[in-house]
Amino acid sequence: MGKILKQIHYTPAKIERGYSNKSLYINVGDLRIEEKEVTGFMKEKFVGGKGFDLWYLWNAVTPDTRWDSPENEIVMSVGPLGGITQYSGTGKTLVCAISPLTGIPIDSNAGGYFGPLLKFAGWDALELQGKAEKDLIIFIDGNEGVISIEEGEEYPEDSHLLAEELTTRFAGSEEDKVHVSVVSSGSAAKHVLMGMLNFSFYDPRRKTVRFKQAARGGLGTILRDKHIKALVVKFKGIKPNLNNPADIAALNRIGVKYHKEMHDLDEKQNGMRKIGTANTILVMNKYDLLPTRNFQTGGDPEAVKISPEVFITQYLTQGLHDGCWYGCTMSCAKAADHFKLLTGPYAGQCVTVDGPEYECAAGLGANLGIFDPQAILEQNFYCDTYGIDLISYATTVAFIMECYEREQIGPEHTGGLDLRFGNAAASLELLHQMSRGEGFGLLAGLGIRRLKQVFVERFGADPKLLEDIGMENKGLEYSEYLHKESLAQQGGFALTNKGPQHDEAWLIFMDMVNNQIPTFEDKAYALFYYPMFRTWFGLCGLCKLPWNDIVPADNYKTDTPAKVPEHVQNYVDIFNAVTGKKIDNDELIRQSERVYNFQRVFNLRMGSGLRKHDKAPYRSLGPVTAEEYLSRQERYDKQLRELQGLDPETLSLEEKIAATRTWREKQFELLTDAVYKRRGWTNDGVPKPEHLKEIGMDLPMLLEVVEKHL
Amino acid sequence: MISVNTREQPWRDGLNVQALLDEMGYVFRHIIVRVNGEYVPEEAYARRLIADGDDVQVLHLIAGG
Amino acid sequence: MKVLTHKQEICTGCRACELACSQAYFRTDDRLKSAIRINNNFNTFHAIMCTQCGECINMCTADAIHRDKNGVVRIDRKKCVGCLGCVGFCSELSMFYSDDLLVPFKCIACNICVKACPEGALEILVSQSKGD
């Protein structure tokens, strides 16, 4: 146990209709611990969760703040619906900070118990500011009303050891372990910009600590830069009425209806309870959407080796509850138990690997040309315990491997690592280098945006090729869906606030397969509605999956099955049942619009947020290379004929690639025009003052920023 | 010719919904099929014939991620 | 294991069992607080009560349901977080809840309703099976 540096006692606030109405501020530089009021203004304009995070972050930083400035904050909040137990997916913690990768606000969310326990300990939000000189542990005891900051040098770095040790220590007994949650990163977070946060929950059946991640944008890097080794919260006494909801009968009724739906339909629909999000690996492969070898193609015959069946039958323990918060009967947080590691510092040990989620199998598998479930799970484990965002890692390594195969870089640059597609051993060694802070791993940990510059300036790589194949936008690496044939999804990734993550909109089926949104206006509406709808989950502390990874049996009868109208109504009803407000579907979208536009203006304030920052790499839009074109030649030739009236027979391959590119880049620009218009922004992507007024966000602080760009 | 998700697709005598799904590579389980606006339940895929000129809609339901 | 069983052909639908159950556990005549429910289906009486099948044990999101040494499925009220997942997942529809209670309730084969039944339509069967 480390020396206690600071300790305060407080009276945990009683929760009223989803809010404790207090937030906690901790400065790890001067060890200040302060309580703040959550105001009516904050609740009205920002709701909670990501909204509160962004509000506090705005007030903490200046346009000159960089990710490693002491004033940069990690802010986390669970939102007013967070912690209810009756509905699935109600334990998400939203985390924001100025990102090391993008220089603008990142928002990332995680399951695990931390956010709900933090609220029940009396805090709607937690701000972490300042920088300590030595590693610290922050402990919040929500039953005793004690916050302490103690020295944390002696604890291990890697999350699977650290969280286990802290959980054991602060729980005091086996049965109290479920009442403790830890936020930590890992040994690599000090050496890479893509460090992530692990949010723990104790699994009493497996008797092990498990994790969900707030992975995107380098939050773990900031945590460790602040010398925070871990946050620990303890709260005992979870009951369904702790949020003191306005109408618990409504929560019970909607919850039971939903659980029944899960019981009756999941097996026939997505099988989330069996395999989780990885159920889609082969589906994506079949529809040419599984990113393969740095997003060159959408699948590979070898993908059968990493099929859901392989993971279900050979690795994942079946039949146990796998939810990352109470009441989640979707139970998708799968785990491979007794998994024997073959490499690295823990080689030979048997561990529980959380996952694989779809992104993991797609990113660490297909996108690296690695079709080996053992290697996927081993990379999954090390990314997690080392504190590395596996999406940024996978997309970055895919880029590196393509650069290597195209001889833009060579073994002389990689320290001899033969980083070809399919080389799982090389990828694992790269991870271990990131943990140790040495070799080419240090460089790789910078992410694609910075690597492009290094490869060009120091290694003499071709800048044009690297711009085309480096799958990043705003500095954030793309998540793992091939989307060249879905114009709407190209926008769904690039026309985002934080960067290309699919949590704003996933429109590929609607657009490319169903052909439901053929015009620019249709696509623009989808790129308005879905990002706003999904932003709302982040305001309230909710997970997206229970919305549409299962649907009511009669969903097909509705006019808009893709929206899952009955579930949208559930959310409106739950919100009202907890908060006692009376919102409707329109106000739900409006709540999101306020925060979404606030975040856009925040980007502007930090020197980004304009049209030029929404540009997509050409790999996202179409075939960059001859091999890519030839691999889907029939499709591209047909498009030349049908869309452009060109005769492919009369054109050389280079001409066909060029004509395709001109067309597709133009389409993306037209889409951008339409989306900005629909969102109430100028043609340069700036929220118009009259739009801010219309949505009730004509705050002087925002108008002052946008006026400079009009 | 028939229309599948508003795109033209060749038709042949005896074509049923299941055969069409197979030919299109539509293996995703979570779909809604409508022929000329009429919902076709999954149990009927193999016996529901598609006539020349029919308008088939195959809605894939996931909205992902 | 112990399990409550019901003989349809004898039952007259008097609902003495419901009353005995709700009185014993919640001191009320409200049949919505009984862990056995008699439904009248064209004058045939069906009983809905737990078969001790245990489907709810592994799905419980708080690890609060277990089978006791008599094979009876029991809810640990301290551990239960009131998510009602088990209510939605019960194939027999015999896991019950009430808005003024924080945890659901179910038949624990206690024999109180058996004694209360004037027709002898209820019986606790005891078998060697552990129920797993």
List the helices and strands and how they pair.
The complex is a heterotrimer of chains A (710), B (65) and C (132).
Chain A: E1 4-9, E2 22-27, E3 32-37, H1 40-46, H2 50-60, E4 74-77, E5 93-98, E6 105-110, H3 114-120, E7 125-129, E8 136-141, E9 146-151, H4 159-171, E10 180-184, E11 197-203, E12 208-214, H5 219-225, E13 228-234, H6 248-265, H7 272-275, H8 281-286, H9 308-314, E14 335-340, E15 350-354, H10 358-365, H11 373-386, H12 390-405, H13 411-414, H14 424-436, H15 439-444, H16 448-457, H17 463-469, E16 472-473, E17 476-477, H18 487-494, H19 508-513, H20 520-540, H21 545-548, H22 565-579, H23 585-605, H24 618-621, H25 626-631, H26 633-644, H27 653-679, H28 689-694, H29 700-707
Parallel strand pairs in A: 2-7, 8-13
Antiparallel strand pairs in A: 1-9, 2-3, 4-5, 4-7, 5-6, 8-9, 10-11, 10-13, 11-12, 14-15, 16-17
Helix pairs in contact in A: 1-2, 2-23, 6-22, 10-11, 10-12, 11-14, 18-20, 18-27, 20-23, 20-27, 26-27
Chain B: E1 2-4, E2 7-9, H1 17-24, E3 31-35, E4 38-40, E5 55-60
Parallel strand pairs in B: 1-5
Antiparallel strand pairs in B: 1-2, 3-4, 3-5
Chain C: E1 2-6, H1 16-26, E2 37-41, E3 44-48, H2 55-59, E4 65-67, E5 73-75, H3 85-89, H4 112-116, E6 122-126
Antiparallel strand pairs in C: 1-6, 2-3, 4-5
Low-confidence stretches of chain B: none
Let me know the number of strands of chain B. Answer: 5
Helix/strand-derived category of chain C reads alpha+beta
Distance between the termini of chain B: 35 Å
What value does the average pLDDT of chain B take?
A: 93
Mean pLDDT of chain C: 95
Largest interface between protein chains, with number of residues from each side: A-B, 34 and 20 residues
Quaternary state reads heterotrimer
Shape of chain B: globular
**What is the radius of gyration of chain C computed over CA atoms, rounded to a whole number of angstroms?**
14 Å
- Beta-strand portion of chain C reads 15-25%
Structural class of chain B: alpha+beta
Q: How is the largest sheet of chain C built, in terms of strand order?
A: 1-6
